[in-house]
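Lecture notes, part 5. Sequence design as translation. It can be helpful to think of inverse folding as translation between two languages: the language of shapes and the language of residues. The source text, in structure tokens, appears below.
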């Protein structure tokens, strides 16, 4: 009888599991990315020494070997909205973390760079606009709306306020070399000189011709200051004698916009960087050519003595080494280590990727190639090796939208105002269509690769024929403001566009191909269309497609006399379809969600953040991280299988097949900050303990969930959660940690990495 009851109980469990596979959503096993593409795009650089660079990236500060470019350490946690301010010698830095919601606050963390330790923290109930370190004393200047406030950053003591300051136009307040004065580039084309001890205004450097003085730099010997401004005629640089406050000379430095100033260590030369600021289209002014260069000026004579750079686009800044022998040229998406004496590049780092504003990112249908496009660069990456294959700089005009051909061999890109077809491997132009399109971000290849649809900022839609480039078709619908999404159906029968039209309402428009032309069929109103950067229209079949609406995905069927709404699912842009057309990949609250859209069954993947691309066969899925890098996932592993664990009606987790042995699995996410989940499997009911150790073997946290029944604890709902704190509740520092599971008769250990 006992054996019969056991057999019946096991049979019932199997039947429950089988029923659950049909009727209930699936909990997914924890998975990890295959790899990561690119490095975080730098925001700032400063030399700690001739051998070491500090690099500011989105989430922290990196310590970089000057010669190899290798990241040897990282420290200092940054929030999404933050600024970093360095002391003159880079021995200390301040991270200004701003709140993204009300009340508007600023948390300032002061770090000792050499010790990699935080030494002070302030919290302000207001956004601090600008800040600066004194070079001689532990004085830190912060600017609020009512003045500039001075603090002792070692003790936190308040020193005083400089009131009625004409606030600077940029994040530039600079202490004099001797620490006695504060230089403030202010409104009304002046630089104000404030006494740090008396907190009074002592002088002004007047003589600018524009409305704003943009920035200020002081020479290391304290004898000179340099400023720059921008007016309608030219980019002007000014050099002043500090002692007399007399203007020594003013020069126009190139055709572009001045982006930074730096004095040589001996105070004899001034390095001025420019970046291109004009377009060649007539409504943006005459074409003046790219001007992304460094000009070197002799301080005493005011003569230009050298010029270099110009290999890449948009030169943001120059940073000189302490010896003055080398410099970092910081372009928008490249960094060059320049030998000043030899006048040549020592190293170039271009493997930065950023999926923020101004970039578009796409995956080839075969999953082999990643393309990232900004206004200044096309970067082509090999996905299997995760290496940058080619970088193409804009030669004349800015790049805009792009799309990869269905055969994964071509790249259609708008180089304002032309649509070009380039070889995906070499980046070379093969076709340039004669019809100017103008500024455009939305472009789509047809499924056969023959036609290309592209919109422009005047509400026009063009269909370009790669077999007949000389005869584009211009589609003009009345009162169209902008297209959000474009897509061709699977057999090129339909062209669908979604966007904003008459009366600022959202519409979907449909054209049907008749021979070589696309003829308008009908349109319908769809409130709340997504205008996300990664928003996509995805055809499930030739007449059924999914479109992202705000917080939902709608599935429409195209009928001869009008569309039919089939389903509305919970999700957000983008949306892609699995190779068997059964599953829709979407986002939900920043995490991946996969729908069996016919059964309306969702599967959530909390460990996969912000997915944005899927290969045609579903084998490669890409997501973005908060560092600006791209994570690669096995897309097929995300789809359900017969061994997927399930939770029927909230009952205890059951699995098709028993757990054969105890296992400790890899924590996820890993690396993490500050929380992670530790998955495991139990073959028998056991008393479970998880112990976490630092690299020296010291126990930092003990997690005891108690006695657990046999089963799989690999989903986020079942795994053991750790918040990154020790047993006293304090956050642990960055680094490698060991975690050990003990179940009485089983013990195992793995590594994990917390990165702040």
């Amino acid at each position: 009888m006992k054996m019969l009851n056991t057999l019946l109980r096991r049979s019932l469990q199997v039947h429950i599991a089988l029923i659950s596979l049909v009727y209930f959503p699936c909990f997914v096993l924890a998975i990890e990315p295959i790899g990561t593409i690119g490095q975080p795009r730098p925001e700032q650089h400063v030399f700690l020494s001739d051998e070491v660079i500090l690099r500011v990236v989105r989430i922290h500060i990196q310590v970089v070997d000057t010669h190899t470019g290798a990241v040897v350490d990282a420290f200092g946690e940054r929030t999404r909205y933050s600024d970093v301010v360095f002391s003159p010698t880079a021995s200390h830095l301040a991270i200004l973390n701003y709140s993204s919601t009300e009340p508007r606050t600023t948390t300032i963390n002061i770090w000792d760079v050499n010790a990699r330790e935080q030494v002070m923290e302030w919290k302000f109930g207001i956004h601090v606009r600008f800040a600066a370190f004194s070079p001689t004393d532990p004085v830190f200047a912060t600017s609020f709306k009512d003045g500039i406030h001075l603090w002792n950053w070692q003790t936190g003591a308040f020193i005083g306020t400089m009131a009625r300051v004409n606030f600077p136009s940029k994040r530039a307040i600079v202490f004099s070399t001797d620490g006695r004065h504060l230089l403030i580039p202010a409104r009304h084309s002046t630089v104000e000189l404030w006494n740090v001890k008396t907190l009074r205004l002592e002088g002004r450097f007047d003589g600018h011709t524009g409305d704003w003085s943009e920035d200020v730099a002081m020479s290391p010997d304290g004898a000179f200051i340099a400023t720059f401004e921008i007016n309608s005629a030219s980019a002007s640089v000014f050099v002043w004698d500090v002692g007399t406050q007399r203007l020594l000379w003013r020069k126009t430095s190139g055709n572009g916009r001045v982006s930074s100033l730096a004095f040589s260590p001996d105070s004899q030369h001034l390095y001025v960087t420019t970046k291109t600021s004009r377009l060649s289209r007539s409504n943006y002014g005459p074409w003046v050519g790219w001007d992304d260069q460094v000009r070197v000026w002799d301080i005493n004579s005011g003569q230009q003595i050298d010029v270099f750079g110009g290999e890449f686009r948009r030169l943001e800044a120059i940073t000189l080494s302490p010896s003055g022998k080398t410099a970092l040229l910081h372009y928008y998406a490249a960094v060059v280590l320049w030998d000043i004496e030899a006048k040549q590049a020592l190293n170039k780092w271009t493997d930065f990727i950023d999926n923020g504003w101004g970039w578009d990112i796409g995956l080839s249908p075969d999953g082999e190639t990643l393309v990232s496009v900004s206004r200044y660069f096309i970067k082509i990456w090999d996905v299997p090796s995760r290496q940058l294959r080619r970088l193409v700089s804009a030669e004349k005009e800015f790049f805009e939208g792009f799309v990869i051909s269905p055969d994964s061999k071509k790249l259609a890109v708008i180089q304002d105002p032309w649509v070009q077809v380039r070889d995906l491997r070499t980046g070379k132009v093969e076709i340039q269509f004669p019809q100017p399109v103008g500024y455009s971000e939305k472009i789509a290849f047809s499924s056969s690769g023959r036609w290309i649809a592209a919109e422009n900022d005047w509400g026009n839609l063009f269909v370009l024929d790669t077999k007949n480039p000389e005869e584009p078709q211009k589609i003009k619908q009345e009162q169209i403001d902008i297209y959000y999404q474009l897509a061709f159906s699977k057999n090129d029968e339909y062209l669908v566009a979604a966007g904003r039209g008459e009366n600022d309402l959202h519409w979907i428009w449909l054209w049907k191909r008749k021979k070589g032309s696309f003829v308008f069929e009908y349109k319908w109103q769809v409130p709340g269309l997504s205008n996300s950067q990664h928003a996509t229209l995805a055809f499930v079949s030739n007449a059924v497609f999914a479109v992202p609406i705000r917080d939902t995905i709608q599935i429409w069927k195209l009928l001869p006399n009008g569309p039919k709404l089939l389903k509305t699912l919970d999700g957000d842009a983008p949306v892609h379809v699995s190779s068997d057309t059964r599953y829709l990949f979407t986002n939900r609250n920043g995490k991946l969600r996969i729908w069996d859209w016919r059964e309306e069954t969702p599967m959530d993947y909390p460990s996969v953040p912000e997915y944005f691309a899927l290969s045609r066969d579903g084998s490669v899925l890409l997501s973005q991280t908060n560092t600006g890098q791209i994570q690669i996932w096995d897309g097929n592993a995300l789809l359900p299988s017969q061994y997927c664990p399930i939770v029927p009606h909230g009952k205890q987790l059951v699995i098709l097949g028993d757990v054969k042995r105890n296992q400790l699995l890899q924590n996820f996410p890993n690396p993490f900050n500050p929380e992670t989940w530790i998955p495991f499997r139990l073959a028998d009911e056991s008393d479970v303990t998880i112990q976490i150790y630092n690299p020296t073997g010291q126990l930092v946290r003990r997690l005891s969930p108690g006695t657990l029944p046999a089963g799989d604890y690999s989903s986020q709902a079942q795994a053991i959660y750790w918040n990154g704190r020790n047993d006293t509740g304090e956050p642990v520092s960055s680094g490698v940690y060991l975690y050990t599971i003990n179940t009485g008769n089983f013990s195992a250990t793995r590594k994990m990495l917390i990165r702040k």
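The translated text above is only one of many valid answers, since several sequences can fold into similar shapes. The helical segments are 2-23.
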